[in-house]
Amino acid sequence: MNSKFYNRKYKLTIKHLTMLALLVAICSVGRMAFTWVPNFTPVTTLFLLICLNVGTVDAIIVANLTMLATALYLGMGYWVFGQMLAYSLVLILFSLLIRLGLFKNFIILVGIAFISSMAYGFIISWFMVFTLNFGVFWAYYSVGISYDLMHGFGSAVFMLMLYFPFKSFKLYIQKALV
């Protein structure tokens, strides 16, 4: 079985761990820099770009470690596990879209960044309703839809800003991991 999700040849070398640590640091700083604006952070876009350019497993590792690292400053609670689950599911769905080859057009990628953020909000709302046993999902989700729209708008804006610089960063990553 040869899959990008599970690869027996996947090895964590010192260079690879250093790259992951630097990506976690970049994502954590990006999240902390925009805490004053609700749901307008570059982390979702960075996770999608890592998934697109580096790999799904690395993107999930960076996403989960970023959520843990920033939770130490922003506050740790049961919702952190929901964030980790939601980002993992979004990145897996995004990697499936990568396999379909939908990223030949930059505008489609910006739209998928918006949709991915909306999917994250949907999954995290489902997790909160399930965890807190509210019972009425659509009422809970409809209250937070404005935050999800802000998250989607922010991800689209950051995709416009970060896509081309990250492509040159991808070349650096490829050279570093050789």
Question: Could you outline the blueprint of secondary structure elements for this entry?
Answer:
Elements: H1 14-33, H2 43-53, H3 56-74, H4 78-100, H5 106-132, H6 137-143, H7 145-176
Helix pairs in contact: 1-3, 2-3, 2-4, 2-7, 3-4, 4-5, 5-7
Transmembrane segments: 12-34, 46-72, 78-98, 105-129, 149-166
Keywords: Hydrolase, Membrane, Transmembrane, Transmembrane helix
Organism: Lactovum miscens
Structure explained in plain terms:
The chain has 178 residues and is mainly α. It has one domain: Arp2/3 complex 21 kDa subunit ARPC3, CATH 1.10.1760.20. The protein is 78% helix and 0% strand. The protein contains seven helices and no strands. The protein has helices spanning 14-33, 43-53, 56-74, 78-100, 106-132, 137-143, 145-176. α1 (14-33) crosses α3 (56-74), α2 packs antiparallel against α3 (56-74) and α4 (78-100) runs antiparallel to α5. The radius of gyration is 16 Å and the shape is globular.
Quick structural gist:
Keywords: Hydrolase, Membrane, Transmembrane, Transmembrane helix. With 178 residues, the protein is mostly helical. The chain has 7 helices and no strands.
Q: Give the overall shape.
A: globular
Q: CATH topology, anyone?
A: Arp2/3 complex 21 kDa subunit ARPC3
Cα Rg:
16 Å
Distance between the termini: 24 Å
Report the CATH C-level class: Mainly Alpha
Largest sheet: none
Secondary structural class: mainly alpha
User: What would you call the quaternary organization?
Assistant: single chain
